[in-house]
Amino acid sequence: MRFDTPATTNPIDRLRIIGQPVDRIDGPLKVRGAAPYAYEQHEAVPNQAYGWVVGAGIAKGRITRMDLDAAHAAPGVIAILTTENAGPLDKGKRNAAPLLGGPEITHYHQAIALVIAESFEQARDAAQRVQVAYAVEEGAFDLAEAKAEGVGPSKDSPDSKIGDFAKAFAEAPVQLDATYTTPDQTHAMMEPHASLAAWDGESLEVWTSNQMVAWAHQDLAKTLRLKKEQVRIRSPYVGGGFGAKLFLRADILLAALGARLAGRPVKVALQRPLIANNTTHRAATIQRIRLGAGRDGRLTAIAHESWSGNVEGGEEENAIQQTRLLYAGANRLTGTRLAHLDLAEGNAMRAPGEAPGLLALEVAMDEMAEKLGIDPVEFRILNDTQEDPEKPDRPFSQRQLIECLRQGAAGFGWDQRSAQPGTRREGRWLVGLGMAVGFRNNLVDKSGARVRLDGEGIVTVETDMTDIGTGSYTIIAQTAAEMMGVALDRVVVRLGDSSFPASAGSGGQWGANTSTAGVYAACVKLREQVAQALGLNASDADFADGMVRSGERSIPLADAARDGALTAEDTIEFGDLQKRFQQSTFAGHFVEVAVDAATAEVRVRRMLAVCAAGRILNPKSARSQVIGAMTMGLGAALMEELAVDTRQGFFVNHDLAGYEVPVHADVPRQEVIFLDEVDPTSSPMKAKGVGELGLCGVGAAVANAIHNATGIRVRDYPITLDKLLDRLPG
Amino acid sequence: MMPFTYERAQSPAAAAAAAARSPSAKFIAGGTNLLDLMKLRIERPGHLIDVNGLALDRIEPTAEGGLRIGALVRNTDLAADARVRRDYAVLARALLAGASGQLRNKATTAGNLLQRTRCPYFYDTDQPCNKREPGSGCGALAGYSRQLAVVGGSEACIATHPSDMAVGMRALDAVVETVRPDGATSEIPIEGFHRLPGETPQIETALQPGELITAVTLPPPVGGTHVYRKVRDRASYAFALVSVAAVIQRDGSGAVALGGVAPKPWRRAEADAALPQGAQASAAALMQGARPTEDNAFKLKLVERTLGAVLAEARS
Hints:
Largest interface: A-B, 42 and 34 residues
Distance between the termini of chain A: 64 Å
Number of strands of chain B: 11
Largest sheet of chain B: 5 strands, antiparallel
Number of strands of chain A: 30
Distance between the termini of chain B: 52 Å
Strand content of chain B: 15-25%
Helix content of chain A: 10-25%
Oligomer: heterodimer
Shape of chain A: globular
CATH topology of the largest domain in chain A: Aldehyde Oxidoreductase, domain 4
Radius of gyration of chain A: 27 Å
Order of helices and strands of chain B: EHEHEEEHHHHHHHEEHEEEEHHH
Number of helices of chain A: 16
Number of domains of chain A: 3
Largest sheet of chain A: 7 strands, mixed
């Protein structure tokens, strides 16, 4: 189905099942431990062996000698994989550094061997006996240093210039010129990257934990120089990803190579201390923002430049992209600069670009509001735009930012905020309120599904879409139930298998809208087949309550499949509505913090997000997405940071003891409000996404609340107590 | 994990004797730290002596009017003991500020004292660490040292002792009771129990080879207001940046010990003596001779601020 004109009324609009806060259909399985994750696929194939990954102990250089004798001699060892015996490998389209390193090492903890043994413990024991000698080379590990050496815009992403920024900024009566930094972050999902691989002759089957089955499928086949038809990937359950599992990573490749070498199935889970340096991470940024405004508070000049680093072949952290779209202003300059760093590959983490970008921009806006003496909410409303500021003939399809802010301010008690920072004290606590805008675009990509109706009236949906804890199983079931007019318990959803139609996958908050739109498309086809089988006219047939009605006739749906199951498959493909309309999601984030006047410990007391994000397919799972993201934003503001050892070139705090994310005691009362919205330009579902919106801007709201509480402006994240301590009253 | 042999000890003295016979032996009780380190091959005992059956899990009054805490009393039970809560509240509060409920259920009194640093360079076996591999160097000194020691460290090591419990015990002048391989018993004041790293950071306590902790005794209650304040980057389940254990009397005198700043629970007589003059004077005495890194210099200020808050709380 091609989607190139805005959606009109369709069966989804009935909202009998779509839009309802139904429980997760996979919930009971997960609660009972009956949903097998990749490392728990004990029944998938017999005779599974265990792989343990050896990571490089240096950041850059060469292996001069690898002594495997002691490891080979250790009990239970079956084989040891290295580049010496891995066979020829290509590199996946979406990988920068090789997933199996050696002799050349391009980052710390790059996999250099996989030790395969009969048991997990034996594999670990033997791996610890591997002796490696290196010739270490100098590397670049310090972003600030790399920036100081001067990095210009790259040819691939030139600066965007509108009007005359320099002139407008120079002439602006009120100016801000500030630099912000955000640290490297790791995804820290609960389930590590894990895979089980088994060969049958020249065919390979992999059970893994991956967000994008089609990408992993393509890149695994390419890396192994196989045809895609020789490879099958399944990823039915994913214990969190946040972008860490968008790509083919070492667990999949090493399990596959290890299984080929060992001649039997091999499973691999990346050890937790390896993940930060072995896999991808969100790259640190240095961002310079300049804002110029008239005394009336209208922005006349906006500049945002962002520096980040990456390995050869890696891309920049695009922290400026939302600045191109968020506020009005005639003169604009935005650009990224990419430095070469020899740390692990930087790549997508939840709201890539937006998350660090808004951490900076939305504090800059707070600072500017303060300079102007305008309330931060009103300042943003004053600079709202209903069209793309770079292309004024391109409107936003929906932009309810002002409504988000107004409703949020009213609901949160924003009028209680003192405009004078550092003036509200409750015992030992300095209390402040802060707000920020959340802003994330709606992305679409083609997404396919297959739908089958059987003689029992059961509707089965198959798509390679994944559920990474987000609720895909449930909203896909809701979509099929709504379209086919059956109860939710009459729908079976099967996900995450490369033998199913390719979906858009889970990433970029596009999964919910696009994967359900693909199911919608397949269901439209299936409805036609049903109508034909029942001798009805598809265009006026009404599917409801397990019956199909047309005119005076009412026939059980299942009758259509009496002589055999009906199967329909389709892919939703998107036309140019994305180009004609800027499709985005918006939020107003409001936060109250308390800062200990003596120790500078920060506690977030309450949080509110008011979101406008198109049709909310399931308010319950959507709310879960947003409160989880708000928690992540709290972590980004206050504690999350991969500490770089700039001499040795690695992330030091590479486990969950050293890399702190919020615990329950950090998480306050959280409230989420979804505004009524449908976006007919987005898809037939009229939905957008919320999974990343919930994170965008939250940390800035925390930072702004800290400023309101203390009068201290911290521009370097995370805002740990040492950055406040000297300037607090005590 | 290296292969190891395992035995269940029949008595404390037998356990100590068995440990003396096997140079690579380790005692195991709760195992909350040892097993993690064995999996990482940081601890490599050839023999494990399980002391869990030794009936060292009671809390009893001493003849002097204090309390004798068996080496195997679990952290959860110690924190919940009515006598501890009433007379040694700083200890109960310190315990509850540490780890998680699940870990406290397993962790023992002696094991808590003997837990090893959480310095990330100690944990990463690809990095140099004089504590893990004597002579290999210290990765932390010029590396990432935000969590590490500002006082009491050396050129060889700036690791901190991670315990909260031990900081409370330090403020209470606890005494560690042991049995030696020859069956003799010994008493080690907690002041001298943990050693500073000097040039031998791998030697962390005053225990002799084979020597087994049997109990920790607390002197008779001293009254006063008991405060334990732990400052960290998140609200729970993190090691201290700075912690303060304080017992403050009505006249302003008292005892103060610090966690998170030194290789051992940190207390100085001069700092106690300066308490009546206030936090600044006492903190200055505690931090005398401090040699912080760029990463952790903030701890000096934080000690003063936290101590100030603790004294204010004690007075209120």
